[in-house]
Every structure is written in structure tokens, then in C-alpha cells.
Amino acid sequence: MSVDFNTVAKEFCTFYYQQFDSDRTQLGNLYRDQSMLTFETSQLQGAKNIVEKLVELPFQKVAHRISTLDAQPGSPSGDILVMVTGELLIDEEQNAQRYSQVFHLIPDGNSYYVFNDIFRLNYS
Amino acid sequence: MSVDFNTVAKEFCTFYYQQFDSDRTQLGNLYRDQSMLTFETSQLQGAKNIVEKLVELPFQKVAHRISTLDAQPGSPSGDILVMVTGELLIDEEQNAQRYSQVFHLIPDGNSYYVFNDIFRLNYS
To answer: Does the beta carbon of A42 lie under 8 angstroms from any beta carbon of chain B?
Structure first.
């Protein structure tokens, strides 16, 4: 039975944002040494550097809300590409900020890790 | 000398949007049979189906403006992943619509084709 990439993508993003919003120090398990993160204008490589960057972001409370989530198979070898657009609520701010994010997921045993991660706030 | 993925990504997107905005019937050369397009809620596979979808979009005049463009190597074999956020001006409308788009580019000889293409308007 082939893996349903839509289901994997939705489950991954749900887990990722729940973990981000509750305790982002634990996100390192989802990245590897070769993983890359572009967060706004910062570029980082490797699970350790990526988690350091995410942890030092200057907010205490954060909540992601997914607006759209679209997935495609990224290659015949089981990769999955996901694009999310959503809203970010930070600390006590009343107005959500819109963002766009891409994850390129690569299978690893029974699970997936993030190879590419690109995040941008959508300024209007 | 290794290819500079940032340069390739910028040149590709510049060319793609110029072609889209001037004559989108010619975009088929940038896709292959295995290529996939998610355009809003529509999913298509193959250069022919993708170009048909793009051509039948209900506007005559269109202009893309790139706001942000971020690229990463998508694999050791030379793939490139690009996320664009930008603005779309359609026909005689005064207000641009914001969009997010991902391209997964795969090398093919001296050029690249689009394997994955995901496009979403950002509703606010």
C-alpha cells in the first residue's frame, strides 16, 4: 500500500505546529544535519543551528493557524512537498500576521524529516 | 564550478513570470509529463494539462510582481526549491492580490524543468 502523501503532509504539519506552539525546543528531532531553514532573511543548516534560531525568536506565546495546505509527491522516492499559508498569533497581539511556509519532507524509516524549510511573513 | 542555485532560481522565476504575463500558451516547455500543478483547489499532471489550465484562467491581462524569493538546494542531485510571495494584477483591477507559489526545479541538460508547482492566492 502506498503512503497517502496528503495524509502524511497534514499529520506532519499538525504535529509540527503543535510542537512549535507548545515547546519549540523539541523541534530538533524533525531536522537532520543536512536540513536547511530559511526564516525570513536568515539561512541556517543543521538541526542544532535551526532549533537555536527557532528558540531565540523574540516571542513567548505563539499560535499557528493553517489556512491552506497543499501537498505533492516531491520525487518517485517518497519525498513530499508541502506549501502552507496561514496566520501567526504572537504574544498578546490582537492581529494575526499572515505567513507562507514550505516543507520538503524526506522519508526516514517509518517517519519523515524536514530537508527544506522556507518561512516568510506576508507583508501587505 | 557548481551552479549557484540562487541565481538559477531568480533567473527562472523572472523568465517564468515574463512568459506567463506575455503569452502563457508557451509555458509548456517548462513542464514535463511527470510535472504537477496545484492551482488553488485544482490539481493537474503533465505539461499539456497544466498549460491548458493556465491558458483557460479567466483573465486577459495579468502581471506578477515578486515580493520575496527564497531558494534552497532541494537535493544533492541539483534540484532547486523556490518559494515566491508576490502580487498579481489582473485585467483592469486596481488592487493587487497577494499570492504564494512554490517551484521544485529539476536539472535537465543545461536547463531546468518544473517538477512541482503549487500556487495559492492569500486571502485576508
So the answer is: no
As a whole number of angstroms, the distance between CA B124 and CA B119 comes to 16
Q: Which sign, positive or negative, has the C-alpha torsion A51, A111, A85, B65?
A: positive
> What's the pTM value of the predicted model, to 2 decimals?
0.95
Tell me which residue of A41, A42, A67 sits closest to B100, measured CA to CA. Answer: A67
Is the Cβ pair B83, A120 closer than 8 Å? yes
Question: Which of B73, B74, B118 has its CB closest to that of A83?
Answer: B118
CA distance A51 to A56: 8
Interface confidence, given as ipTM, is 0.94
Q: Does B73 touch chain A (CB under 8 A)?
A: yes
Per-residue pLDDT tens for B61-85?
Answer: 999 999 999 999 998 789 999 999 9
Place of cell 499557528: A64
Residue of A nearest to B106 (CA): A75
Distance from CA of B74 to the nearest CA of A (A): 7
Summarised one tens digit per residue, pLDDT across range A10-34 is: 999 999 999 999 999 999 999 999 9
